[in-house]
Structures are given as C-alpha cells and as structure tokens.
Amino acid sequence: MTLLGLSISELGRRLRSREVSARELALEALDRIARLDPAVGAFLRTTEELAMAQAEAADRWLAADPQGAPPLCGIPVAHKDVLCTSGVETTAGSRILEGFVPPYDATVVARMAAAGAVVVGKLNCDEFAMGSSNENSAYQATVNPWDHTRVPGGSSGGSAAAVAARLACATLGSDTGGSIRLPASFCGVVGVKPSYGRVSRYGLIAFASSLDQVGPLTKTVEDSQLVLSAIAGADPHDSTATTEPVGDLAAALHQGVQGLRLGVPREYLAAGVGAGVREVLDQACQRLEREGAELVEVSLPSTEYALAAYYVIAPAEVSSNLARMDGVRFGRGEPAATSLVEAYESARHRGFGPEVRRRIALGTYVLSSGYYDAYYLRAQKVRTLVAQDFARVFQQVDALVSPTAPTAAFLLGERVADPLAMYATDALTLPANLAGLAGISVPAGFAEGLPVGVQVLGPYLGEAVCLRVAAAVEALSDLWHQAPPGTDG
Amino acid sequence: MAELEPVIGLEVHAQLLTKSKMFCGCRAEYLGLPPNSNTCPTCLGLPGALPVINRAAVEMTIRTALALACRIPEFSKFDRKNYFYPDLPKGYQISQFDLPLSLAGQLEFEVDGQRRACGITRVHLEEDAGTLHHAGEIHTSNFSLVDLNRAGVPLMEVVGEPDLRSPREAPQYLRALRQLLIYLGVNDGNMEQGSLRCDANVSLRPRGQREMGVKVEVKNMNSFRSLEAALTYEVGRQTDLIQRGMTIVQETRGWSELEQATVSQRGKEEAQDYRYFPEPDLPPLKVGRELVEQLKAGLPEPPMRLRDRLLDQYEISAEQVLVLTERPQDAAYFEAVVAAGAPPRAAANWQAGPLQALCKAARVEVERCSISAGELADLVRMVEAGEVSGSTARELLAEAFESGASPAALVTERGLAQVSDAAQMDAWVDDALRQLPKAAADFQAGAERALGPLVGAIRKASGNRANPDLAARLLRERLARPGE
Amino acid sequence: MDLAQVEHLSRLARLGLSPEELQTLLGQLTAIVAAVDKLQEADVSSVDPTAQVGGLYDVMRADEVAPSLEAEQALANAPRKEAGLLRVPAIQ
C-alpha cells in the first residue's frame, strides 16, 4: 500500500519516528501524480520546487522539535485552483486567468504552509467553481477514480479525486452550494464545509461571496479535523470571518453519538433520491441508532424554494465578482481591440466558458432594474425562510443526517446539455450554504459499486457535532482505507 | 411665459484625510508617488482579495454628517455599484445605496450677506477610482493609461437637496461646505488637485411651479469660478431652449474650460443600470448612540456660529472675523492672544496683518509658527501702551519669526523701548525746531501738515524710540507759544 | 424574456456574445428563470431579507498603513503596460 493511503496521524507518527521523511512523502506523491494522474486529471499543475523546499523545511522542523511540530508537518497536500498561491499560477479553471500568478497567498494557503504542510500542486475544478461535475473546467475533465467513465462531482472534483486516488493526503476545496460535499460523496472521501465565516475567504477567488467557504477533503474524519483546525479562525483580511474561538475540535472525534438527537429531514428524502443512496443512508441511520443516537424525522418546509433562491443569489454575486476579470490588470491582452468595450468583450468572451457566461447573464438579469425585487430581494427573503427552518429544527435536534446527493456519481456528459438537471445535483447541499451552517459528507457505503456519502449538518459553528457524528458514521462503515481500483499500487 | 427659476443641487465628493485607504492599508496620500506603486491585491482588484472597512473613514463621515445636522440611522451598509471602467479595478465601486451612514441635514451659507440654508439629502462613504491619463487629446488618442494609486482612497459624498435657486448661490454653498470640512479636519479642500470635487444637477421650471423640470447633470468643475460659470452657462442654455419651445434632454454634460460651455457627454455612456446590491464582503454597520454622542461632543464650533460669536464677543469688524475664521486654528490663536491680555481689535490687526503675511511667506500655519499667542499678546500690549512704536514692533516681529526669539524680549534687550522721558524729549524737540525752522514757521502760520516733518525729524534723531504721540503733543505746546 | 433583453444583458456584462450564442442563451435563461420563478410561490410577507449570515457587524480595522506591492509586482500580470501604467484602448 502507498504511504499516501495512511491517515495523517499515522503518517505523523512515522514522520516523527523518522521511519519516513517529508521529502520521501513528497517524492512519492509527485511520483504517483506523474504515474496515475494522466488518467484521473485531478492536477492542473504540480509544484515540485515548492514541494521539495517545503518538505526539506518540514524535515528540519521534525528533526528539531518532533513533538512540537504541528500535525500537518511534512504531509503532502494540494489546493483547489481557486486558492491564490503566491508565485504559482492560479487559474480557477478558467481561460481568463490563464497565466495569472498571484503576488500573494490565500490565508488558508499561508496557514497550511505555516502548519508545515507540503504543497504538491494545484487542483482542477469547474470554472470559477461553477458546476457539479468538474466538466466546466476550461482545461481538462477530471474523472472519478472509482469509475473513469463517471464524473468526480464538482466543483472541487480535482480535490476529491486527488484524495481518493491517494495523490495527496489532504486537499483544500471550496463549497458554495455543495462543491466540497458533493465530490466527496462521489469519490468516497470526507469533505467538510465549515460554517460561513469559520474559515477565511481571503485569497479564495470568489464565486458567491455570501455562500463560499473553504474546507478540507481527506480520507478520514480525523484528517479533516486536523486540516480544519489548522485553517479555521479569525482573519483580519476577511471581514466576514468570525472571531468566535474555534475550540478543541479533536475532542469531538471520540465522543460517540450516545445521547445525541439526530434529525432526518423529510424533504431531503423526497423524489429524486435514488434507491441505492437511500439504502446507504438507512443503514447508516440504523447503525447510529444502535450506537445510542435517537433518530427523529424533521421537516424543513422551505427546502422546495432553496434551489431557486440559490440560483438567484449565487449568480447575482457571480455577475459582480467576475466583473474584475476585464483583461486590464491581468489576462492575455486584446491587441486587436480598437475600443475599450471591444477589448472588454473580447477578453471576457474568449475567457469565459458557457456555464460562467450563463450565470453572469442570469445574475445580471436578477439584479437589473425592474427585476431586483421579484428575484434578488425575494430570494434573500426565501433565504431567511430557509435559515429559520434550520434554526427551528436545531432547537429539537443536535444535527441532521441526510444523503449528500440524490445519486451516486453520474456519467461524464450526462448532464452537460441540461443546466437545470445539473443544478438539481446540489439540491440537498445548497440549503446549508444559504443558512451558513456546518456540513460534512462522510463515506457511508456503495451503491452499484460507487461510493455514497452521508451528509451531516450542524448548526452555525457546529463543526464539532458534525465531526462527532461523521466520525461515528465512519467508524461504523469502516471503509475509508478502501482505495479505488488501480490506485493502491 | 412665466419667469423661469433655476433649481440646482450639488453633489460634493471629498477625499478623507485618513492615513490609509478605505478598504486596505495602502496610503491615502497618493500624490507624487510613482504610478501604480501604491496598490495591493485589494485596491488592485486582484482575484480573491477582500475589503476591510477603515474605522477612521466611518468616523469622519459621521462627524461630517453630525456637523451638517444629519440624522445617523442605527443601521447602515455598503453596496456594490456595478459598471465597467478601466479606473475601477473590481468592476464595481463599493458605495452606499439605500442605507447610508446619514440622512436629512442642512448647511447654512451666505450669499451677499444674507444667510441661506440648503438641505442635505445624505452624507455617505465610498471609494475613489484610479486615474486615467490620455495620450494627447482625449478625443483623438487611441489609448489611455491607468494609474491605480488613487483607487480605494476614502471618498465621502455630500448630496445636497436641489434648494439652490441661482448659479451665484452654488459657489457660496460650496465655500461653506469646504470650510466646514476643513474645520472638521476631514478634507484638505483642494479643488485643483481634486481632493474636493463638485457635480451639479440643474433644471428649470416656471416660478411658482412645484414639479421639477428635466434634470441635467454637469460635471468637471474644479474651482468656485468654473462652478458658477458652468451653472450660468447651463441655466442660459436651458432657458434658451425652453424659450424656443424645445425640450431639455436628461443627460450628463461636462464643463469645458476651453470652450466656456457645457458639452454633452452622451454617447460616452450607454443607459446605465448599476445593479446595486448589498456588498457581501462587508458586514453591516450598527452605529451606536454612544459613538454618535462621543463624536458629537468632539465636534469643533461650526464656522458660522464661530463667526457670530467672535463678532458678538469682541469688538472687531466683520472683515476681521472672516479672516480669523478661515480655519478653526486661526480663531483659536486669536482667542489665545486676547486671553493673554491683548486688546481684541489690535490683536486682530496684528494677527490678520503682519503675522499672517509672515506665515504666508513662510508657508506655515499660524499655530505652528515660532510666535506663540502669548508672545504676540505681549508685543501688542507694548504697542498699545506706547512702549514701543508700531514700526519697530513690526520689524521685531519679523526678526523673531525667523529666529524664534520673543519679540518683547528683543525690545528690552536692545533698548528699543519707546522714550517718553521729558528732558530727552525736550532736547529732541529743540533739535527738530532748529533743523526745520521753515516747517515750524509754517505750522505756526496754520499749516497743520507741517507737523509731520517735525515729528519725522524727532523719530530719526531718536532712532525710532521717541514716542510719536508725545513728540507731536510737545511740538504743539512749543509752537503755540511764540516768542519764548 | 426576449432576444433584446438577452442582448442587453450581454452588453451590460460585457459578454460579447454572438447572435447564435444569444439565441442559445435565450432558451436556457428562459428555462432557468421559469424554474427560479418557484420563488414567487413562497410566502415571504413576514420576513426580512438575508444578505449575509453569521450576524457580524461593525467589523472595521484601525487606520494604519500597511506595505503596498512594488509597482513591478502590481503590474506583473498586466498584458499591456507603458511607463509603469496600464494601457487600455481609448475610452470612446
């Protein structure tokens, strides 16, 4: 088995006992990427030089202070390409940022580096994180390591596939409507969407600013906790990052679910949830009950409006957030353009793919005069209803358990031509973004040979209870060390 | 046709005198820096960068609003105003739309000695754009160059109600506002360099009618003079159109200094739809009563009230008051001089006259110059008491201004105190009468003017130390008793 | 929604879409807007809009100067520059 199939805590033990060096781990990751990634397509680029420099620094740290070095010290990681990395090209999966080299690090990138993590590359994603299948990347389609004819999910598809294929021990993704949890479910890994404001967005290339959160994708719940603990917390550069203390998230992992009340939202089991997915959820629920949790059915009646609200609010913010992509301060230049408008239009037309254009147009529409009240303002009010629903049920239950996605990974190309079908993929994940809640997708079983995740949602800043329940699901299903076929060599 | 009445409202943009920009730590003072050397990921609009509100800018805006008697709502927020322009790096300006920091105030100003008040719609906060340079004439150049050093500088907008009724009122309103901003220390008032900018909305309507006419926005006026000229032109243009039965087009027009005319900027901009929406990167502001009270307590006395008080409290002229209230520091200095024992009128003359001239020449503010208020008071008192002559005092003031010495100390040090000693004065009078017998005779024959040269001779003989009033009195006494 | 409206959106957002692209977009936007019209069924008469979650307010920084980028760094990604300035086609 590859060393990258081990948990972070096991690797940490071996790094500290000098059984393995950070340099060896980085080389193994880079070697695996070279061998396996051509078939998976998770990486947009590798960062050998940076990785070796960071690995050598990590080895020095581990040698000098083995017990004081942080848990991530020497661990190979990779970042979704929506996170700015100083001196390393960052494209957000878009042509319009081809060649863009940020002069600064995203806060989460800096925090991972400060924790001693070793960055081996940048990961593919849907263009500007807009998509549920990774097929909207301008560069390449990432495939699902469990079945190369299927999508890895999106938009953090590269992040999920890289962990599943053991190309990195942990990756960072971003989740605006399910973009961490969905690919985590499809690829059989753990994915955490922290509460809004739990993790800094500074340096995260914005999709929808009021919904975006950065979070980890890992093989185990504990691994995710270690990464989350490293990146979470206040940031003077992000006004929307909360100053509430993060607390000891590790403690939650071993508390079990005895005495917890867990709600299963009726609306999340409605039509569209496949039988295989339903079966995985039911089994997980039964096991949780056996461990002492009380499971109750709850109702989130505004769920039926959540998708519509999301597809107004997110595009509205997109239309504004992507206005800075104008070809003036970065971009490829439009030497042929004779007027300013022509230069803008040429840069943006050549730079944006169809889904991005679609969302910009939709967002422009819902904000334009005459439509603002009927769409944008109304969507914001529906957002209030969705949040109120959650607030109500979290007075009765400690956490919610549901499918992460209605189905397992679908076929490449299956939903490309039908935006609405693609949008529906996020129906069970996006309400948590609207309400700003904590959420985790944890592998719970297989449906027809494909991984299926269970989603655990907690209240605002309820990361601990989510980790607690997810750890129990993980322990009960005991399948995290199963690697996709062909990746365990 | 009924007589037409102009309806004018001003929108004034003022860069705030903060140390750093509105949403990032780059310097707010950008003039003279090499191009694009005062930027960071945030004000450069790089992907992923985020804004953080500058507390000082918020407080300056609230102070301004309070000085304009505005209401400060408890809830305020920033919004995005979306449009594409090369000087706007993010493709949107962070501004305030429906919930500004303040609402509904008023500004008092004077026109031809009459007091007028103009409503203030709101005072809100936003960020400045970068600057565009055009190669050659803007109309013919085929490219522009962008400098983003200014992008993100805090910009406060004071929106005035359309309460002005003539182009003459506009510069007066702007002068009063400018002075208030300077009093508050929130803006340097420099219109030429663009730290204070003014746009105007102009429409006409028949006198007595309530409804507004079609509104034209006039831009590019960078002095009081051009503001009045542009409005006079625009009112004339609209009057002419209406009188010829033509309709006014709602549009933006720019004042052209070259053509001395407003020129349509249509065609430059398509129909705008700014798609304002709440800035998701910035949590809203809840301005507490406590902060409002605290900021209110720290407000300086507004210029208009200060002028009234000085006029009332001291026996000085309206002209002197105007000069002494140009800046609050001027008035404070004056009051300190008076408090140190100088008679107000003389203190005002000395401060507004010789001292201000010295300060102007040295480009230093009076409160920072080497002459303290106490030192000026001592000098003024000596002059008033006849202990030193006015001309000597002026010379000493200039010298002390340079050297940093105390002018009163110089008087003693150099024995320049005015001489009133009887024996000495008599001797100087005798000398003068001997030197200028003709003048003496003329005076005795009734020529009052002839006294001048005699006093002058005494002054010269005494090295400027003879008390001139005493000298004149002694001469009169002697020349009134012929034959002695 | 009609073609003129989609054209207007394309212009406002500087998307530079071709006539065929506009036509395709019209069909897609029409379907998406019909779907999001689900919003009109929700009873929102008694709720305030939510622009942000987390309940933060008054997040401000002290007025302190922090280092800026070097001009070269600031312009490093710019495709067209001249004498330290960003070059763009004329405004008109």
SSE inventory with pairings:
The complex is a heterotrimer of chains A (489), B (484) and C (92).
Chain A (H helix, E strand, L loop, with lengths): L7 H9 L5 H19 L2 E4 L1 H17 L11 E5 L26 H8 L3 E6 L33 H8 L5 E6 L5 H7 L2 E4 L19 E6 L2 H11 L29 E5 L9 H16 L3 E5 L4 H19 L18 H12 L2 H14 L4 H22 L5 E5 L15 H6 L5 H6 L2 E10 L2 E9 L4 H15 L12
Helix pairs in contact in A: 2-3, 5-6, 9-11, 9-12
Chain B lengths: L3 E12 L37 E2 H13 L7 E2 L2 E4 L9 E4 L6 E10 L2 E14 L3 E4 L8 E5 L6 E7 L8 H16 L11 E11 L9 E6 L2 H20 L7 E6 L4 E4 L12 E2 L6 E2 L2 H9 L5 H11 L4 H7 L3 H12 L4 H19 L10 H12 L5 H14 L3 H7 L8 H14 L1 H8 L6 H11 L6 H12 L5
Parallel strand pairs in B: 12-13
Antiparallel strand pairs in B: 1-10, 1-11, 3-16, 4-5, 4-15, 6-7, 7-10, 8-9, 11-12, 13-14
Helix pairs in contact in B: 2-3, 6-8, 7-8, 7-9, 8-9, 10-11, 12-14, 14-15
Chain C lengths: L2 H10 L6 H18 L23 E2 L9 H5 L5 E2 L2 E5 L3
Helix pairs in contact in C: 1-2
Taken as a percent bin, the fraction of beta residues of chain A is 5-15%
Helix content of chain A: 25-40%
Strand order of the largest sheet of chain B: 6-7-10-1-11-12-13-14
Question: What is the CATH superfamily classification of the domain at 3-260 and 401-477 in chain A?
Answer: Amidase signature (AS) domain
**Quick one: CATH class of the domain at 3-260 and 401-477 in chain A?**
Alpha Beta
Report the strand count of chain B. Answer: 16
**What count of structural domains of chain B?**
3
Which geometry of chain A do the CA atoms define? globular
- The main sheet of chain A orders its strands as 1-3-2-4-6-5-10-11-9-7-8
The number of helices of chain B is 15
Rg of chain A, nearest Å: 21 Å
Query: How many individual helices of chain A?
Result: 15
Regarding quaternary structure, what we see is heterotrimer
Largest sheet of chain A: 11 strands, mixed
Care to count the β-strands of chain A?
11
Using the alpha-carbon principal axes, give the shape of chain B.
elongated
Identify the most extensive interface between protein chains: A-C, 74 and 53 residues
Strand content of chain B: 15-25%
**SSE topology string of chain A:** HHEHEHEHEHEEHEHEHHHHEHHEEH
How is this structure best described in words?
The complex is a heterotrimer of chains A (489), B (484) and C (92). With 489 residues, chain A is of the alpha/beta class. Chain A has a domain at 3-260 and 401-477: Amidase signature (AS) enzymes (Alpha-Beta Complex). Chain A has helices spanning 8-16, 22-40, 48-64, 107-114, 157-164, 181-187, 221-231, 275-290, 303-321, 340-351, 354-367, 372-393, 419-424, 430-435, 463-477; strands at 43-46, 76-80, 118-123, 170-175, 190-193, 213-218, 261-265, 294-298, 399-403, 438-447, 450-458. In chain A, strands 1-3-2-4-6-5-10-11-9-7-8 form an eleven-stranded mixed β-sheet, sandwiched between helices. In chain A, helix 2 packs antiparallel against helix 3, helix 5 packs parallel to helix 6 (181-187) and helix 9 (303-321) crosses helix 12. Chain B has three domains: 4-291, no CATH class; 301-413, no CATH class; 422-479, Arc Repressor Mutant, subunit A, CATH 1.10.10. In chain B, helix 10 crosses helix 11 (407-413). Chain B is built from 15 helices and 16 strands. The model of chain B has no long low-confidence stretch (mean pLDDT 86). Chain B is elongated and about 90 Å long. With 484 residues, chain B is α+β, with helices and mostly antiparallel strands. Chain C has a domain at 3-39. Chain C is 36% helix and 10% strand. Chain C has a two-stranded antiparallel ribbon. In chain C, strand 2 and strand 3 (85-89) form a beta hairpin. Classes of the chains: A alpha/beta (489), B alpha+beta (484), C alpha+beta (92). Strand 9 (143-147) of chain B pairs antiparallel with strand 3 (85-89) of chain C, so a sheet runs across the interface.
